[in-house]
Amino acid sequence: MKKAIIYLEPLVCPSCTQKIESLIRKVNGVEKDSIKVLFNASKVKFIFNEDVISIQNIINEITKLGYQVLKYDVQVV
Amino acid sequence: MLPITDKSRCEEMVYKILRKKHLITLISGILIVMSFISKNLVDHEKLESILLICASLLGLLPIMIQAFQALKIKVVSIELLVTIAVIGALIISNFEESAIVTFLFLFGAYLEQRTLSKTHSAIKELIEMAPESAWRLTETGDYEEVDVNKVRVGDKLLVKTGNKIPVDGVVIFGEGYINEASITGESIPVHKTIGCKVYAGTIVDNGSLHIIAERVGENTTFSKIIELIEEAQDAKSHAERFIDKFAKYYTPLVLLIAFIVYLVSLNIELAITILVLGCPGALVIGIPVANVAGIGRGAKSGILFKGSDVINAFNKVDTMIFDKTGTLTIGKPQVNEIRVYDEDNIQYIKSLLVSIERTVDHPIAKTIIDYFKETNQLSVQEVNVVKGGGLKGIIDNNHIIVGNLNFLEKEGVAIPDIVYKDVKELMLNGHTIVLVSVNGLCRLLIGIRDQIRPTVKNELTNLRKSGIKHFVVLSGDNQGSVNLLTKDLGITEAYGGMLPEDKVKYIDNLQKQGRKVAFVGDGVNDSPSLARANIGIALESGTDVAIETSDVVLINNDYNSLTLALKLSRRIVKTMKQNIAMALIVVTMLLVSLIFSDWMNMSIGMFVHEASILAVILNSMRLLKYKHK
What we know:
The complex is a heterodimer of chains A (77) and B (629). By secondary structure, chain A is an alpha+beta fold. Chain A is built from 2 helices and 4 strands; from the N terminus they run βαββαβ. The longest helix of chain A has 13 residues, at 14-26.
């Protein structure tokens, strides 16, 4: 299991956090309870299983939703 | 809609459109200006309409996409209201309105983004203090520059003048002056040498240090502070949750009302105007924006509020309870009084004292050595530790006895009357007494006492002026020393001999009387009280548990910011109320003028709506500039 922190461009609407959260919730291999979308900090944090899904795939999904990923950080939990 | 031939290509298109939102806003603005020119100067009605239709459709694109995305997660968003309104306006061929409404909506969103990011500026400044790279010792003995995320616990790192300390660690070689403002808010550099702890995000002002990494990445003190602040900003208050819930049903309700109005009146114009007027923008944003700006302002002065509920509760506090040791006092006993009975040999006596104290490991010995740092050392020939009494030893063939009055009497030391008088006087004042005898005569007295923090008295006065009515001291220490302290500070309610559960009971009682209680303390034993009080206030240097259970953390480790914290919390609450009032007045005004006047239309509605959102943001930004008087 790895912990990911994704830094997004500044989020503007509170509903953006809902959109992103429900998107990541649908991704297989992500621990659903660990998902945290911080609106003010424009960060997404979650724990995921690298054997099931790669971080790059998740980032692509977020990008497709219309949110630019500035950088990301993956750590071993 | 876009032709869905290839799903991923379509998604790419959507992404591109959303990215180019600002450009789209600009172009649709230009198109609108051109249409006015063609209407007034060239008087070409067809061209005007075409330009306006282009502006409407172009501007509608990103709005529609966002409305659709929200619908997919079952949220009826403001974008949906606007989309329907604009399509309605296009159907009844009111191109001017459709173009202006889309433009104003997009432009408003742009301005919101710009101003909102300003409210985050205080925290951003803090985050930018985060270190990015480190110089790590390699196996060959060289230093290589690595990303700070690659540093592991146990790595040896080099930090030079001007560099940021990359991780929390301990100095293993070298020394230097370090600016710890990012952690403590204190900008006077602190001297650090071998064995000292250093913190990530602090800056080496002067010197060169070799450190060993102890806590890295998200576990450093700096990262934890940032995380606390970030989560505090997102922690929603009751009022905010209420408004969120309200907004969730409010937007569909507006949609429904507009639809009913249309069915009853068959007036599309009226129905779509209601859609635009009903946007809940300023109401939804009023509390969170004030919250973010306020927490940011607090962080700038080293005050961390854990969320807007905390701010609300702090604002109402009327009673402050303090722990004694380490809170009102420095928490470290210090040499407070010295009485000399052998003036001629005092330097020599001090040397004897320090030399013999150095041979033992005892808190009082350490306090004395710290105080007489500059004194010469002599070699000790013989030393005996007598439990519960003191020290006996021989230096330079002089017999030295150090200890309390009882011990010296038992050893048969000659004690002048003046010494008895001094001992009695100082003990009444809460001192611990150490007497020094050389060759059978008592020649020196040292009084040790925990000190009141120098600025506490002033701070209590300020808090009283700011409306705190009751001050209480609860301490595990004996009643006598508690009384001494409170007499100095002018606090009337003070109780000693309190166990942690007694403190909690006391707080419970006050709360039952309807008091709003803040508890200030930082030890592990204070944690239950910190949690039970309406507001728990702890220092960042306190224990982890205390920080975890408290509601307000003073990152600058300075109790003198209590007044600022209190005043700031009041100002934040006031700003929230202003914002809500402003939003409600605007909505009422719009609806009233829709019913009773004929000048209200979609464009004016959208303009007022966007203006009110900006007004609320600007009002909240005043918090960032809040000055403490």
